[in-house]
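note to self: dont lose this again. the chain is below, predicted strucutre after it. 919 aa total, dont forget to put it in the shared folder this time
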Amino acid sequence: MMTDILPGEPQPLVVSEMYCEYAVNPLGLDIARPRFSWVLASRRRNRRQSAYRICVSTSRENLRRDHGDKFDSGKVFSAQSVNVPYDGLMLSSGERCYWKVRCWDADGVAGPWSEPATFEMGLVQPGDWRGVWIGADPDVSAPLLRTEFSVPGNIRRARVYISGLGCYELYLNGGRVGDHVLDPASTDYDKRILYATYDVTEYLREGTNAIGVMLGAGFYCQPSEPDLTDVVHAYGDSPRLLMQMNIQSVDGDVLRVKTDETWRVSPGPILFNSVVGGEVYDARREQPGWAAAGFDDSRWSPAVVKESPGGVMESQLLPAIKVNRTLTPVSLAQPSPGKFVYDLGQCFGGWARLHVKGPRGTKITIQYGEYLEPGGLIDKRPYPGSQETNTYILKGEGEEIHEPRFTYHPVRYVQVEGHPGEPRLGDLEGRVVYSDVDLFGTFECSNPLLNRIHQNVEWTLTNQSFGLPLDCLHREKCAPLDPASVGGALYTRKHMPRFWTKWLRDIRLARKDGVLPDAAPSYRNLYPGGPHVCYLPLVWYVYQCYGDRRVLEEHYDGMKAWTDYLTSQAEDHLLVLGGLELCSDHMLPGKSPGEEEFMSSETPGAIIFTGCYYRNALLLGRIAEVLGRTRDAQNYANLAKKIADAFNREWFNEEKRRYVPESQTADLFPLALGIVPKGFEEDVIHHVVESIVREHDGHLHTGTIGTTAMVETLATNGLADVMFRAATVTSYPGWGYMVDQGATTIWESWGRFQPKNPRWRADSMMMWATIDRFLYNDLAGIAGPGFFGPDGVTPGFERFDIRPRIPEELHHAGASIRTVRGVISSRWRKDFSNRHSLILDVTVPVNSTASIHLPKLGGENCTVEESGTVIWKDHAFLDIAPGILAGREEPRTVVIEVGSGTYRFVISEDTHENPGDEA
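---
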């Protein structure tokens, strides 16, 4: 039996973090059986939970007395610490519950109770909504709505449940409530509508109170501007509001303030607003105090009762969009008389906040862009008409501060025209806006260029996170189901379960008779989407990362319907589908920057479609197996095999020992899928290396699908040095080239500009962000789920691999990620002063185990020490270190099985050979 590395008595398991539906103390749950998760901490190694007990109570006092009057699980013998479902008395609307958990370790020692946590229900039943939808006449762009109400003393708590379509700002007694912007997150409004819940107890006072709401168009009633946007599906003709405030007194009485025809409405200072077209704001039309009690609204009109948008009301559980950072400009120039251009130094999504003084009626135009003309002005060619333009008209009352409310822009440069004086550098700030997702996670290595590439990926992720994974910050403010873009976002290894589960529901609801659109929500109304849409791989990825079985259950019918639709379109298990080549290997590099092929002429779309069809069938069979649907599991496994066989019959040439037509993507994609005929894998890999190293001088020659496949494939096949070179080369094409050209994000195209294309490329897109998988998964070695390929983890990272693949040119690398079980980290450095040794520091969360793959550094034999103790020597495992469970030898690695804890391994090679690749 292992002994503890720490002296003294055994320490019990301590609950360090608690979550309900992946959130801390959430408000507004509308899930009948919410799920609990917790993270455990211990100073000892190899710690696992053997049992738990959850108590849920209606009061802190009951919880303190261990009285779970809503739910007491009793002692449950299970290691499950992720997504444990509530199984108590029915939860009612607005009910606030207190919960705690304690855990037992493998020796049966009980840990202490956790600190209390809470969750609170929203409006659970449709009948709980008492208000009606209200708004203004359709010609009012952004109406103001208000009402006053009286509140008795002795308030216990007050909650507002609100949805304003397309967007809203909420005010109580003159003060802004919350910090959400562009709220609620967009959906298919005729299917579901998100509402937010706010604790407004501290905003209210005894006596008369006032509530006010400003509405904007958002995607709900996006103005019809075909020259400005790809969005063609507007849901309603004008903004509308549904709101309810429940005020509970200490004696239990509930006062409800709700939207109805007694509210008053008026046009506001926003004359025009469009998600793409910008805003026109006339400060002269402001009405000071309009959201405060006592305001004279006698000239306002009665609110107009509006038709319901039709969708089911659903609580917005994903992190809200917020202003998360404020940037200071790095420079200010005047390239033309009266035209001032600020450089924020970074491409981001959001807007500018302008401080200005001037005469009443002065009209200032604020334009946004990602790049400049040679003369220094913003290049407007990508932004026709009023796109990415705001207008502000001064009221002339001292310093005025303006920032838009119901639009957002791609920002690097901000051009100000019509300024009444000469602006200063500090008069403008950049407001960085994105969904407030958990961005915990690090990557750092000895190569500054890779560090910069990683930083660019992180900026790109935030730029695409606006309640859904955007295609880009202008032109296509929608969420395509493109596998490369989604894979790029997933490969950043950020802990975003609420973001992804929200968007998966958007995808499920966007189906029409089993057919998926090209983007969800389906604002572009394009059906069917390409056969390569990423629905099934995303569901499987979420299940693996978060151990979320419910996501499999919720989407099973939709995934099956989509796969069966593809089967109906296949001929002899191949998806040829002429006319859909525009959905294949996107943005293949050309001979020089700007000559990219929009869709590859080298790799037929049928290869991509059929490969994705195979991936869908394979995953559906695995999902069916998890859910106990035995017949489906067998049927779809058989279907996957037939598709793979047909794929290889059609495109694999045994004589050439590779796929035809001959392209990097044609070879890499089946390698990533794992369908290369047995015995030919090395040959296919050889052709890939020949193409990259010799034909293209170390450069990739792949579009979006091939690049994603390459990132999943090269290092895992012993080619970390080849992948490292392709990532860091600073000549065209590649990520290093983007950085060398001044990129602060990941571009849409390998070449920034395409002069022959009337729709210039965006400076921020997720397609090439797939490179982060190489950084986290291969260089740092924290192995996660694959997107195209078979790599996986035990759901929720209960069991995973640490497998660093070490290029010769790199001297150290490390990363950390957050999982549902806690933080995983892996950091290594070469130590040439000690006979070519390698030092690897690893942290494994409590309730997880890991296989640590230690490279032999090019030799046949090595010695491994852990925290100063030799655990492997002369090809043999020495069972003498705490937390070390087992060891075995593979051709190029020594694999050490470990329990939870923090470890330091030192690998010393009995040779003077230089470190090389590790497979």
